[in-house]
Amino acid sequence: MSLDRFPPLISAQLHYLLAHYPDIIKVEHTWSGSKYNSGIHDRFTLLIPYCLDYLKWDVLYNVDSPLAPPDVIFGPDDEDFHPLLGLDGVGDLVLEKSSLCDWNNQDPRRLLALIVELRKKYMAYQRNRVGAVDDDRLKFEISTFGSREVIFRTQFERMLNIPLSCNASYNISLKTPVTLLQGIEMHMSSGFEKPEEVKFAVPLLDMNINKMVLACPWRYPQKIYLQVVYPVTRKYGSAPSAPRLKLMSTPDLKELFSIEDVKLPPWVDGMCMAEYLPPLEELLQRQVVEAVTSIDARRCFIEALVPWFGRPLEADSVFCRKVSFLAASGVFTFLVHFFLGTQFPKQQPVLILQSTQHFNMHGTPVKSTPLSEYPWSPRWEASQMAERMYDFLADESHNFKKYCSEYHLQQ
Amino acid sequence: MDDLPLEKIAISGPTLASMMQRLSSSRGDVDGLLFGHVTRITPSTLSDDTSPSFDGPSDSSHLVATVTSFLCPSSSPLSFYDSLGRLNAPSLSRLLPSPSSSAIAADGGSHFLGWLSFRRRSQTRPSMREYSVSHSLSRSSHLSFPVANSETAPVTLTPCIFLLFATPVHDQAIHTHDYRAYQFRLSTTSFEPKPIDIVNIGPAFRGHYESFSPNSAFPMLNCEMRGSSSPMVEEDRSAEEQKQLDLCAEGFDVGDLKRLMGVEATGYTRGLEDLYEKMLVKIDGLARQVESSNAQVIEQEKRIKDLRYKAAARSGAE
Fold first, then answer.
1. Most B CBs within 10 Å: which of A73, A77, A87, as the mutation test of the B interface?
2. Residues A184-194: pLDDT tens digits?
């Protein structure tokens, strides 16, 4: 998405937003609202992560009034979301102090402050909506969230070293690196011909995964969430059906740990989240720690390969998931790519051989199919693993050489 | 301040057309004020059946708002409110007719009904600020106006109407404009979509003739300060105007016109022709002045536009 069609003041704000927003925020579509200058863009759609989904908000600037504050159009399902009015009940709505108050388009931080403020208000708005649902089970579940959130809140305050009072948030967002409050996000989905559902995004594990990885390359803190979707049941007495559960994580985490491999514990009838979450967190914690120790096991294995294969051509030095060596059998030289799983050494590495001398008709090198059928035991020492693999490859290189020359003859 | 539901919002074809012309000729986004009147319509679905269920206060919903004129004060938005949608009272009162003239206008039914917003290439949903502006207007009881034909106790409404104009986000060759009408209801603090009834000439619109009073208000050029229209000042002003008029007449007295009659007339024609010629010269001079000052205005506007785009086109420089 090219952002260079914006006039400088808007461009500066947008770039600041994209660079400093504490989560992945995307610009989906940009366009112009000017009659004569359709080449200069002043409107865009932002995709803002919320509750494991995205909010799609249109931000409208005005290229003809470069100093005017922007306006926002929210999604079609959020017609009742009015962030400029306070949330203090139905009676007397008072316009709240907002970052739009003394808007200054020349300050590049303003758009970021506005989006953070609006998202925070959106969270409160959804919370109010969910809280107003007449469902006994939901009411109970929400009442148990308090204790979980206190933990996350204190963790957040420790990170920022300042007590968070509600009215100080605007100043914080301008002066310190912005961090979103790690609370339980909720979303009430309802609409014409749609079943009423309440979705929760529960952040799991009170630990900083980024810190556990040596030389961590991740820009955003990696988190694991449990998505819980409750169908709303208004009838009293009828047994509430089990919620739909799904584990989700921030995208970069899959380098370290694949949440698809986690088998969720079963949800027993009559269970509540306060009961379900602690065993799940324990399980996850164990698996994340295992995944981190697996990095060391992979590193040892790669180091053990060096005496047999020589220095690697290329190696993933952070997660140790991938390493490539140059090998030769007589005059036939080829590359060996090792792919190591997140559950190494339980999972044995996958090998791909690549010829340096044979190419297909598109000019790309000939490669073997992924090899994973060879003698392996997770209980071997790293040096023994390396030795066994070397032996296997010594044999396999003949097959691969034959395969390459046959392939070459066919063309 | 009553929060009564409107049945529909009526607007005459020419008014809507000139509104759209004004909006689509603008460079960017525009907002403006809507004027007109709200009338209570007696349901015309009377039948011989005198069942009592049709009687009673049920006809309170038959309120029709008719938009007769509009005012788009400037080519940039935020003309009478701030970034949060709070009303800017001084600029709003500058745009609204002064109380004395609105008293006259009240017969013609030109009340401040609400506002309109036009934004090119955007969704036809009220935005965050538009909601806030309508909310502020609906809460302003000092802006309330009476409903015409209210038989019972006098009923008033606040400027609760909102017309939203937009063009499609993605370019479309045929479809060019979208518009929607809303009434802001304080009881629910939300916009209620209302049907727009375009009043036109034709047999199907016969029913409108009873209720519709077309009125082409003279454009409001009232820029005077508010509260300065006490009788004393009024007299001063008329004396001032008389003095200016005398200056133009250049000693020609109205009494002299009597000489046009009778025997004196033949001798007097010359004098009258002189006056006429002088006036023609003066008008010509004025026309030239207007022409040159208009040229200057256009020149200035062009310069402003150039500067604006120069600022805007430094794209990517930062």
1. A73
2. 889 988 766 77
